[in-house]
Amino acid sequence: MAISISIWLQYLAFVLFTVFHCNAQTQPQQEPNYLRFVFNASEMPLEDSYDYIIVGGGTAGCPLAATLSTMFRVLVLERGGVGYGRPNLMTQEGFLTTLLDNPHTYDSPVQSFTSEDGVSNARGRVLGGSSAINAGFYSRADEEFFRRSGPWDLKLVNESYEWVESQIVFKPEIKTWQSAVRDGLIESGVGPYNGFSLDHKLGTKIGGSTFDPAGKRHSAADLLTLARASKIRVAIYANVERILLAPETSKSKQSAVGVVYCDQIGIHHYALLREHGEVILSAGAIGTPQLLLLSGIGPGPYLSSRGIRVFHHLPYVGQFLYDNPRNSISFVPSIPLEHSLIQVVGITDSGVYIEAASNLIPFTSPHRSGLIRTPLSPIHLTVATLISKTSGPVSSGFLRLASTDVRVNPIVRFNYFNVTVDVDRCVNGARKMGQIMRSRAFDDFKFRNWFGGREFRIVGPAMPANQMSYVEMAAFCRRTLNTIWHYHGGCVVGRVVHPSLRVIGISSLRVVDGSVFGISPGTNPQATIMMLGRYMGMKMMNERARKYQKTTESAN
Ligand SMILES: Cc1cc2nc3c(=O)[nH]c(=O)nc-3n(C[C@H](O)[C@H](O)[C@H](O)COP(=O)(O)OP(=O)(O)OC[C@H]3O[C@@H](n4cnc5c(N)ncnc54)[C@H](O)[C@@H]3O)c2cc1C
Ligand SMILES: *[C@@H]1O[C@H](CO)[C@@H](O)[C@H](O)[C@H]1NC(C)=O
Ligand SMILES: *[C@@H]1O[C@H](CO)[C@@H](O)[C@H](O)[C@H]1NC(C)=O
Ligand SMILES: *[C@@H]1O[C@H](CO)[C@@H](O)[C@H](O)[C@H]1NC(C)=O
């Protein structure tokens, strides 16, 4: 089954590749104003100093940098390029092409990797990070997330979400497929219907989107528009290789003093901290623990065994790494459907979230061009997909280094379904998908069969006939296991960082990204990761203002 799916995906990739290479049209777009302060790393000075050095211009890094730059001198170091001007990256329709059609080079915007669990996965490598390659669904975190993590200043949390939303979040227009999913969810008992909402509420709702009504992508990179241009530098194609660390002295604890980064032509540059400055790691759940390990911060015996000098023994770096299982059921509908990424979500009370997508693949048959001209008769092939995301999860894995070259992906293992509760939740999700498939809202998508009955034309594994059987449904969960790309952890609060997100035992070093989470926030994480960037930027500025005030007071 796994093989037939991958062949199917290769086919999709091929078709999409052909379509885009034949029909790609360049639309004039307004150049984003942040490009004024984005530089190729090779143009950057060999040595310079900053108040804040942010490693990773991703989902958390961009809002954090924009915020801190209103008062301080900020450097953002991003290993990828800019997405602006690349049609597949910038449009909703380009989502699959971007994911599937990526050359294995060190500068393509998607870095694919396969975990030891055998599931292929993806990391963003472009300004905006994974928010610049994702499916765009936007929804705030659940209350339980805030209760279990933190402590949080909930007023600042709300203000930070609003800051993000005012810039890059839109109300999607739902069409045939997403409407049917909404109706099917309600019919299957996932109520109440909450209409359009960015809040996490039990029941069915339409969430926000970072694609605008014209289908154009917005991402965390757009939040750089709010930066103070005179105070910020963004270096692209800048691979940070190591955090520069100073040992403990009589005057100070061991601390970060800067970073080393390498540009595209292999030249090393030094970015150093000014007094009271900080290095902030926003390189994501894979990149941040990897960089700590490469800098000698992590499990001592492991680092020694890899020939890395131990700077600080911190046993849980790279541990408690999680990925939420995605299970799905797909079919070719009997009526043509529009293309859609996630817009509707069912928030159940049984540990799963139900979402959906429909991929429309238009192509003009070569037989129709040439002599027999039948204009405007493209063939449309649609695949409609219902998705179940297992919340949490509880099962966790870890990463370790595959190489001392930072560009090489670490070896990652998520241990999906290691803990029974994850299987239980997945089974609940699979049963819910079965119920939705049987709903009246889905009747129109069936084909008429030989005997006059109606049935689905399923693509890939079908649901077990006996959906009451836990054993069969659990087997379905394992057979259709995939990722929804919401991996998180690796630098979890309480294990690697303090609640202030400072790295335990080292001063002037923080982590601000999805690697600090022990649980995936809400139905989809990007809202909360962008909020976190803004939130931490505000917190750090307030903290510093208070400290500065204190020292001037005591000096008086
Ligand atoms: C295909 C896909 C679809 C998704 N769909 C959705 C969705 O619809 N809704 C949703 O809410 N979430 C979605 N997600 C998840 C969400 O996008 C991610 O959880 C989130 O973007 C992660 O944010 P982050 O800041 O932790 O890391 P990232 O955004 O990945 O940022 C890390 C950045 O650091 C850079 N970096 C890493 N290492 C280095 C280094 N050594 N030197 C310099 N730079 C470095 C990377 O290039 C990257 O830009 C999706 C993810 C993917 C991959
Ligand atoms: C960045 O600069 C280097 C060195 O001048 C050059 O080789 C490379 O092509 C540049 N990259 C981009 C994307 O401009
Ligand atoms: C934050 O927003 C949520 C959802 O809109 C609301 O329920 C909550 O009361 C707000 N909290 C604060 C402290 O403003
Ligand atoms: C869970 O993971 C542990 C450690 O990798 C392994 O020994 C165990 O067999 C796994 N259990 C299940 C049920 O997968």
From TrEMBL:
| Single GO term (MF) | oxidoreductase activity, acting on CH-OH group of donors
Q: Could you tell me the keywords of this UniProt record?
A: Disulfide bond, FAD, Flavoprotein, Signal
Q: Which family does it belong to?
A: Belongs to the GMC oxidoreductase family.
UniProt-annotated binding residues for FAD: E78, R79, V126, V240, W485, H486, G514, P525, Q526
Cystines in this chain: C426-C477
**PANTHER family linked:** (R)-MANDELONITRILE LYASE-LIKE (PTHR45968:SF2), OSJNBA0019K04.7 PROTEIN (PTHR45968)
Glycoprotein found in the keyword field:
no
Tell me the first and last residues of the signal peptide.
1-24
Q: What SUPFAM superfamilies does the record point to?
A: FAD-linked reductases, C-terminal domain, FAD/NAD(P)-binding domain
- Return the Pfam families for the record: GMC_oxred_C, GMC_oxred_N
Q: Which Gene3D superfamilies match?
A: 3.30.410.40, FAD/NAD(P)-binding domain
Query: Flavoprotein: present as a keyword of the record?
Result: yes
What are its cofactors? Answer: FAD
UniProt cross-references to PROSITE patterns, sorted A to Z: GMC_OXRED_2
Residues forming the Glucose-methanol-choline oxidoreductase N-terminal domain are 284-298
Q: What is this protein called?
A: Glucose-methanol-choline oxidoreductase N-terminal domain-containing protein
Q: InterPro entries from the entry?
A: FAD/NAD-bd_sf, GMC_Oxidoreductase-Related, GMC_OxRdtase, GMC_OxRdtase_N, GMC_OxRtase_C
